[in-house]
Write a structure and sequence with these properties.
By secondary structure, this protein is an alpha/beta fold. The chain has nine helices and eight strands. The longest helix is centred in the middle third of the chain and has 16 residues.
């Protein structure tokens, strides 16, 4: 298994500097990670740093709360895509989901999907499982699939909890074999990474990618 190709090498901290992002990108090239995941402000810098490599760029949108307007999410998506983002990791509007305003919640996702698709970019929908019960996890996955997103994703890493294998299994069971499932939040070692893959994840959002790959080489 090429564990490196499951990894979105991630840095989303508020205190991240340009030099931090440059280091992230250099590590992504060195370890041949699938993608880097950064805040939208840093997409142009990541694009420059990764020029000539096949490492993709993912930008978070509506991060980390998901509670901004759909129009704001769409504009941030367009900006990120124009600057070089290949993938968009958007945060679901959790309040709409909790209020059972399912049509509005789906439309929020679909607007971002349509904006990204115009630039041949894909969308991962962060459902923030730590705030959801099982029925809400299932419903958010169903809405994301109906909105034609490419992935559902467990967590922002900024909530009260990260990825759990049982949630990944539920997400995979809900979306089926053809849609992506990204596990993120709290995956800090090789054993945890394998646990998420075995549960059904085909992408991992981690800040400890280098350590995980090094552990894998020793396993």
């Amino acid at each position: 298994m090429e564990i490196n190709k499951y990894i979105d090498h991630t840095l989303l901290k508020a205190v991240a500097t340009e030099s931090d992002i440059e280091k992230l990108c250099e590590e992504a090239k060195e370890y041949d990670f699938y993608a880097v995941c950064v805040n939208s402000h840093y997409v142009p810098l990541a694009k420059r740093c990764l020029s000539g490599s096949d490492v993709r760029i993912a930008s978070v949108i509506g991060f980390p709360l998901g509670a901004m307007s759909t129009e704001a999410k769409v504009q941030e998506t367009i900006d990120a895509c124009k600057n070089g983002a290949d993938e968009i990791d958007m945060v679901i509007n959790i309040g709409l989901l909790k209020d059972q305003k399912y049509s509005e919640c789906k439309n929020d996702i679909k607007a971002v999907v349509d904006a990204a698709n115009a630039y041949n970019s894909i969308v991962k929908v962060i459902i923030e499982t730590c705030y959801l019960d099982e029925d809400e996890i299932v419903k958010s996955c169903e809405l994301s699939k109906a909105a034609e997103a490419a992935f559902v994703k467990t967590s922002t890493g900024f909530g009260t909890g990260g990825a759990k294998p049982e949630h990944v299994k539920l997400m995979r069971a809900t979306v089926g074999p053809d849609m992506g499932v990204k596990a993120s939040g709290g995956i800090r070692d090789y054993a945890a990474a394998i646990e998420m893959i075995d549960a059904g994840a085909n992408r991992l959002g981690v800040s400890a990618g280098v350590e995980i790959v090094r552990e894998a080489s020793e396993a």
